[in-house]
Design a protein that fits this description.
Length: 275
Protein backbone atom coordinates (compact mmCIF):
# COMPACT_ATOMS: atom_id res chain seq x y z
CA UNK A 1 0.00 0.00 0.00
CA UNK A 2 1.24 3.49 -0.86
CA UNK A 3 1.19 6.24 1.77
CA UNK A 4 0.11 8.97 -0.60
CA UNK A 5 -3.60 9.81 -0.78
CA UNK A 6 -5.34 8.03 -3.61
CA UNK A 7 -8.55 8.64 -5.54
CA UNK A 8 -9.94 7.27 -8.76
CA UNK A 9 -12.93 6.85 -11.01
CA UNK A 10 -15.11 3.75 -10.82
CA UNK A 11 -16.96 2.62 -13.95
CA UNK A 12 -17.50 -0.02 -16.60
CA UNK A 13 -16.22 0.60 -19.24
CA UNK A 14 -13.67 3.04 -17.88
CA UNK A 15 -10.86 3.39 -20.43
CA UNK A 16 -12.70 6.28 -22.15
CA UNK A 17 -12.87 8.39 -18.95
CA UNK A 18 -11.03 11.71 -19.05
CA UNK A 19 -11.07 12.02 -15.24
CA UNK A 20 -7.62 10.41 -14.68
CA UNK A 21 -6.06 12.95 -17.08
CA UNK A 22 -7.90 15.81 -15.38
CA UNK A 23 -7.05 14.93 -11.78
CA UNK A 24 -3.47 13.90 -12.60
CA UNK A 25 -2.99 17.26 -14.31
CA UNK A 26 -4.28 19.10 -11.23
CA UNK A 27 -2.12 17.00 -8.85
CA UNK A 28 0.92 17.87 -10.94
CA UNK A 29 -0.04 21.53 -11.36
CA UNK A 30 -0.42 22.12 -7.62
CA UNK A 31 2.55 19.94 -6.63
CA UNK A 32 0.34 17.61 -4.57
CA UNK A 33 1.61 14.15 -3.70
CA UNK A 34 -1.38 12.05 -4.67
CA UNK A 35 -2.63 9.56 -7.20
CA UNK A 36 -5.78 9.29 -9.32
CA UNK A 37 -6.49 6.19 -11.38
CA UNK A 38 -9.17 4.54 -13.50
CA UNK A 39 -10.87 1.60 -11.76
CA UNK A 40 -12.70 -0.95 -13.88
CA UNK A 41 -15.46 -2.29 -11.62
CA UNK A 42 -18.41 -4.50 -12.58
CA UNK A 43 -21.79 -4.36 -10.83
CA UNK A 44 -20.91 -7.58 -8.95
CA UNK A 45 -17.66 -6.08 -7.67
CA UNK A 46 -19.07 -2.72 -6.64
CA UNK A 47 -19.70 -3.27 -2.92
CA UNK A 48 -16.49 -5.21 -2.19
CA UNK A 49 -14.48 -2.64 -4.13
CA UNK A 50 -16.01 0.24 -2.17
CA UNK A 51 -15.29 -1.51 1.15
CA UNK A 52 -11.73 -2.36 0.13
CA UNK A 53 -10.58 0.91 -1.46
CA UNK A 54 -9.97 2.73 1.87
CA UNK A 55 -7.66 -0.15 2.89
CA UNK A 56 -5.60 0.63 -0.20
CA UNK A 57 -5.19 4.29 0.74
CA UNK A 58 -8.15 5.64 -1.22
CA UNK A 59 -9.76 8.75 0.28
CA UNK A 60 -12.48 9.03 -2.31
CA UNK A 61 -13.66 8.30 -5.82
CA UNK A 62 -15.68 9.53 -8.72
CA UNK A 63 -18.39 7.25 -10.02
CA UNK A 64 -19.47 6.99 -13.63
CA UNK A 65 -21.66 4.80 -15.85
CA UNK A 66 -23.22 2.40 -14.88
CA UNK A 67 -22.83 2.81 -11.10
CA UNK A 68 -24.11 6.33 -10.35
CA UNK A 69 -27.48 5.09 -9.07
CA UNK A 70 -26.50 1.74 -7.50
CA UNK A 71 -23.64 3.27 -5.51
CA UNK A 72 -26.18 5.20 -3.42
CA UNK A 73 -27.21 2.07 -1.50
CA UNK A 74 -23.70 1.74 -0.05
CA UNK A 75 -23.45 5.35 1.16
CA UNK A 76 -23.82 6.20 4.86
CA UNK A 77 -24.53 9.87 4.21
CA UNK A 78 -25.93 11.42 1.05
CA UNK A 79 -26.10 15.14 0.25
CA UNK A 80 -29.49 16.71 -0.42
CA UNK A 81 -28.69 17.32 -4.07
CA UNK A 82 -27.59 13.71 -4.63
CA UNK A 83 -30.79 12.54 -2.91
CA UNK A 84 -32.91 14.78 -5.16
CA UNK A 85 -31.09 13.58 -8.26
CA UNK A 86 -31.14 9.94 -7.13
CA UNK A 87 -27.53 9.37 -8.17
CA UNK A 88 -23.99 10.10 -6.96
CA UNK A 89 -20.77 10.81 -8.84
CA UNK A 90 -18.44 11.78 -5.99
CA UNK A 91 -17.57 9.71 -2.91
CA UNK A 92 -15.56 10.51 0.19
CA UNK A 93 -14.21 7.65 2.29
CA UNK A 94 -14.04 8.65 5.95
CA UNK A 95 -11.40 7.22 8.28
CA UNK A 96 -14.04 5.27 10.22
CA UNK A 97 -15.09 3.48 7.02
CA UNK A 98 -18.23 5.51 6.32
CA UNK A 99 -18.96 6.59 2.77
CA UNK A 100 -20.29 10.07 1.94
CA UNK A 101 -21.95 10.51 -1.46
CA UNK A 102 -22.52 13.69 -3.46
CA UNK A 103 -23.55 14.59 -6.98
CA UNK A 104 -21.58 17.41 -8.62
CA UNK A 105 -22.92 17.08 -12.20
CA UNK A 106 -25.42 19.93 -11.76
CA UNK A 107 -22.73 22.09 -10.14
CA UNK A 108 -20.40 21.34 -13.08
CA UNK A 109 -23.12 22.19 -15.56
CA UNK A 110 -23.87 25.56 -13.96
CA UNK A 111 -20.22 26.51 -13.45
CA UNK A 112 -19.50 25.74 -17.10
CA UNK A 113 -22.41 27.83 -18.34
CA UNK A 114 -21.52 30.75 -16.10
CA UNK A 115 -17.89 30.60 -17.24
CA UNK A 116 -18.72 30.21 -20.96
CA UNK A 117 -21.57 32.74 -21.03
CA UNK A 118 -20.87 35.25 -18.22
CA UNK A 119 -23.95 37.38 -19.09
CA UNK A 120 -26.31 34.41 -18.91
CA UNK A 121 -29.21 34.94 -16.52
CA UNK A 122 -31.05 31.71 -15.66
CA UNK A 123 -34.03 33.71 -14.37
CA UNK A 124 -34.51 35.65 -17.62
CA UNK A 125 -36.81 33.11 -19.29
CA UNK A 126 -37.73 29.47 -19.86
CA UNK A 127 -35.12 26.76 -20.39
CA UNK A 128 -35.72 24.15 -23.09
CA UNK A 129 -34.11 20.73 -22.51
CA UNK A 130 -33.73 17.87 -24.97
CA UNK A 131 -33.50 14.57 -23.09
CA UNK A 132 -34.63 13.18 -19.73
CA UNK A 133 -31.83 10.82 -18.70
CA UNK A 134 -29.55 10.92 -15.65
CA UNK A 135 -27.70 14.05 -16.73
CA UNK A 136 -30.97 15.91 -17.39
CA UNK A 137 -32.09 15.09 -13.86
CA UNK A 138 -28.95 16.62 -12.32
CA UNK A 139 -29.26 19.68 -14.58
CA UNK A 140 -32.95 20.23 -13.72
CA UNK A 141 -32.16 20.19 -9.99
CA UNK A 142 -29.40 22.78 -10.52
CA UNK A 143 -31.54 24.99 -12.79
CA UNK A 144 -34.46 24.95 -10.37
CA UNK A 145 -32.03 25.92 -7.60
CA UNK A 146 -30.82 28.85 -9.74
CA UNK A 147 -34.38 30.14 -10.11
CA UNK A 148 -35.21 29.22 -13.72
CA UNK A 149 -38.91 30.15 -14.08
CA UNK A 150 -39.92 27.31 -16.40
CA UNK A 151 -38.29 24.15 -17.77
CA UNK A 152 -39.68 22.78 -21.03
CA UNK A 153 -38.73 19.17 -21.55
CA UNK A 154 -38.83 16.96 -24.64
CA UNK A 155 -37.67 13.35 -24.61
CA UNK A 156 -37.95 10.56 -27.16
CA UNK A 157 -39.55 8.39 -24.47
CA UNK A 158 -42.20 10.77 -23.16
CA UNK A 159 -42.84 8.75 -19.99
CA UNK A 160 -39.34 9.57 -18.72
CA UNK A 161 -39.95 13.28 -19.15
CA UNK A 162 -43.31 12.90 -17.37
CA UNK A 163 -41.52 11.15 -14.50
CA UNK A 164 -39.21 14.15 -14.14
CA UNK A 165 -42.24 16.45 -14.15
CA UNK A 166 -43.86 14.50 -11.38
CA UNK A 167 -40.61 14.55 -9.37
CA UNK A 168 -39.82 18.23 -9.89
CA UNK A 169 -43.25 19.78 -10.08
CA UNK A 170 -45.20 22.33 -12.03
CA UNK A 171 -42.12 24.29 -13.09
CA UNK A 172 -41.47 21.46 -15.60
CA UNK A 173 -43.63 21.30 -18.74
CA UNK A 174 -43.39 18.32 -21.08
CA UNK A 175 -43.76 18.55 -24.85
CA UNK A 176 -43.81 15.72 -27.35
CA UNK A 177 -40.49 14.77 -28.98
CA UNK A 178 -41.99 15.24 -32.46
CA UNK A 179 -42.90 18.81 -31.49
CA UNK A 180 -39.62 19.54 -29.72
CA UNK A 181 -38.72 22.34 -32.16
CA UNK A 182 -41.75 24.30 -30.94
CA UNK A 183 -40.36 24.69 -27.41
CA UNK A 184 -37.48 26.79 -28.72
CA UNK A 185 -39.31 30.05 -29.58
CA UNK A 186 -39.54 31.41 -26.01
CA UNK A 187 -36.42 29.77 -24.62
CA UNK A 188 -33.71 31.83 -22.95
CA UNK A 189 -31.53 28.76 -22.50
CA UNK A 190 -31.45 25.61 -24.67
CA UNK A 191 -29.68 22.42 -23.62
CA UNK A 192 -29.03 19.11 -25.35
CA UNK A 193 -28.71 16.40 -22.73
CA UNK A 194 -29.32 13.50 -25.14
CA UNK A 195 -26.44 11.51 -26.57
CA UNK A 196 -27.47 12.61 -30.08
CA UNK A 197 -24.55 14.15 -31.95
CA UNK A 198 -21.93 12.20 -29.99
CA UNK A 199 -19.31 10.31 -32.00
CA UNK A 200 -20.85 6.93 -32.85
CA UNK A 201 -24.43 8.05 -31.98
CA UNK A 202 -27.22 9.24 -34.26
CA UNK A 203 -27.38 12.86 -35.48
CA UNK A 204 -29.35 15.54 -33.70
CA UNK A 205 -32.10 16.27 -36.21
CA UNK A 206 -34.56 18.61 -34.47
CA UNK A 207 -34.98 21.87 -36.43
CA UNK A 208 -33.58 25.00 -34.75
CA UNK A 209 -35.58 27.37 -37.00
CA UNK A 210 -37.56 28.70 -34.02
CA UNK A 211 -34.46 29.36 -31.91
CA UNK A 212 -33.95 32.98 -30.83
CA UNK A 213 -30.44 34.40 -31.46
CA UNK A 214 -30.60 35.74 -27.89
CA UNK A 215 -30.69 32.24 -26.41
CA UNK A 216 -27.67 30.72 -24.68
CA UNK A 217 -27.22 27.20 -26.05
CA UNK A 218 -25.18 24.36 -24.58
CA UNK A 219 -24.60 20.71 -25.43
CA UNK A 220 -23.36 18.35 -22.73
CA UNK A 221 -21.95 16.03 -25.41
CA UNK A 222 -18.24 16.93 -25.68
CA UNK A 223 -17.02 14.42 -28.25
CA UNK A 224 -16.90 16.18 -30.69
CA UNK A 225 -16.36 19.47 -28.88
CA UNK A 226 -18.29 21.49 -31.45
CA UNK A 227 -21.34 19.30 -32.06
CA UNK A 228 -23.57 19.89 -35.10
CA UNK A 229 -26.22 21.17 -32.60
CA UNK A 230 -23.83 23.85 -31.29
CA UNK A 231 -22.66 24.76 -34.79
CA UNK A 232 -26.27 25.23 -35.96
CA UNK A 233 -27.06 27.39 -32.89
CA UNK A 234 -23.94 29.48 -33.45
CA UNK A 235 -24.95 30.02 -37.07
CA UNK A 236 -28.23 31.46 -35.79
CA UNK A 237 -26.23 33.97 -33.70
CA UNK A 238 -26.63 32.28 -30.30
CA UNK A 239 -23.97 32.25 -27.60
CA UNK A 240 -22.85 28.62 -27.37
CA UNK A 241 -21.00 26.69 -24.66
CA UNK A 242 -19.50 23.24 -25.22
CA UNK A 243 -19.85 20.34 -22.78
CA UNK A 244 -16.21 19.74 -21.86
CA UNK A 245 -16.31 22.40 -19.15
CA UNK A 246 -19.13 20.54 -17.39
CA UNK A 247 -16.89 17.50 -17.05
CA UNK A 248 -13.98 19.62 -15.81
CA UNK A 249 -16.04 21.62 -13.29
CA UNK A 250 -17.84 18.56 -11.87
CA UNK A 251 -14.39 17.32 -10.80
CA UNK A 252 -13.61 20.43 -8.74
CA UNK A 253 -15.52 19.68 -5.48
CA UNK A 254 -14.14 16.14 -5.23
CA UNK A 255 -10.55 17.20 -5.86
CA UNK A 256 -10.85 19.97 -3.28
CA UNK A 257 -12.23 17.62 -0.61
CA UNK A 258 -9.71 14.85 -1.25
CA UNK A 259 -6.55 16.87 -1.77
CA UNK A 260 -7.29 20.16 0.02
CA UNK A 261 -6.83 22.47 -2.95
CA UNK A 262 -9.61 24.03 -5.02
CA UNK A 263 -8.40 23.50 -8.60
CA UNK A 264 -8.92 25.95 -11.46
CA UNK A 265 -10.72 25.18 -14.67
CA UNK A 266 -9.03 27.30 -17.32
CA UNK A 267 -7.55 27.05 -20.82
CA UNK A 268 -4.52 25.15 -19.52
CA UNK A 269 -6.82 22.59 -17.87
CA UNK A 270 -8.79 22.13 -21.08
CA UNK A 271 -5.60 21.77 -23.11
CA UNK A 272 -4.21 19.18 -20.68
CA UNK A 273 -7.35 17.06 -20.86
CA UNK A 274 -7.57 17.33 -24.66
CA UNK A 275 -3.89 16.51 -25.22
P1 LIG B 1 -28.86 8.47 -20.21
O1 LIG B 1 -29.38 8.52 -18.83
O2 LIG B 1 -28.64 7.16 -20.87
O3 LIG B 1 -29.88 9.32 -21.14
C1 LIG B 1 -29.73 9.36 -22.54
C2 LIG B 1 -30.69 10.40 -23.12
O4 LIG B 1 -30.46 10.46 -24.55
C3 LIG B 1 -32.16 10.01 -22.93
O5 LIG B 1 -32.92 11.19 -22.81
C4 LIG B 1 -32.46 9.28 -24.25
O6 LIG B 1 -33.81 9.27 -24.61
C5 LIG B 1 -31.70 10.15 -25.22
N1 LIG B 1 -31.43 9.45 -26.49
C6 LIG B 1 -30.56 8.44 -26.69
N2 LIG B 1 -30.62 8.03 -27.98
C7 LIG B 1 -31.57 8.81 -28.57
C8 LIG B 1 -32.11 8.85 -29.90
N3 LIG B 1 -31.66 8.04 -30.87
N4 LIG B 1 -33.07 9.77 -30.17
C9 LIG B 1 -33.53 10.61 -29.20
N5 LIG B 1 -33.06 10.61 -27.93
C10 LIG B 1 -32.09 9.70 -27.62
O7 LIG B 1 -27.47 9.24 -20.34
P2 LIG B 1 -26.96 10.52 -19.52
O8 LIG B 1 -26.10 10.05 -18.43
O9 LIG B 1 -28.10 11.41 -19.24
O10 LIG B 1 -25.97 11.17 -20.61
C11 LIG B 1 -26.46 11.75 -21.80
C12 LIG B 1 -25.31 12.30 -22.62
O11 LIG B 1 -24.65 13.32 -21.87
C13 LIG B 1 -24.21 11.26 -22.96
O12 LIG B 1 -23.77 11.53 -24.27
C14 LIG B 1 -23.13 11.55 -21.95
O13 LIG B 1 -21.83 11.20 -22.44
C15 LIG B 1 -23.26 13.06 -21.78
N6 LIG B 1 -22.82 13.54 -20.46
C16 LIG B 1 -21.91 14.55 -20.42
C17 LIG B 1 -21.50 15.05 -19.20
C18 LIG B 1 -20.48 16.15 -19.15
O14 LIG B 1 -19.84 16.31 -18.11
N7 LIG B 1 -20.34 16.95 -20.20
C19 LIG B 1 -22.04 14.52 -18.00
C20 LIG B 1 -22.98 13.50 -18.08
C21 LIG B 1 -23.36 13.02 -19.32
P3 LIG B 1 -34.74 8.01 -24.15
O15 LIG B 1 -35.13 8.29 -22.73
O16 LIG B 1 -35.89 8.05 -25.09
O17 LIG B 1 -33.91 6.77 -24.29
Amino acid sequence: MTNIPRAGVIGNPISQSLSPKLHSYWLNRYGIKGEYTALHVTEDQLETTLRDLPNQGFIGANVTIPHKVSVMQFADKITDRATLIGAANTLIFKEDGRIFADNTDGYGFMANLRQGAPDWDPKAGPTAIFGAGGAARAIIVALADAGVPEIILANRTRAKAEALRSDFGARVRVVDWVQADQMLGDANTVINTTSLGMVGAQDFKVSLDELSPKAVVTDIVYNPLRTPFLIAAQERGCTTVDGLGMLLHQGVPGFERWFGQRPEVDDDTRAAVLS
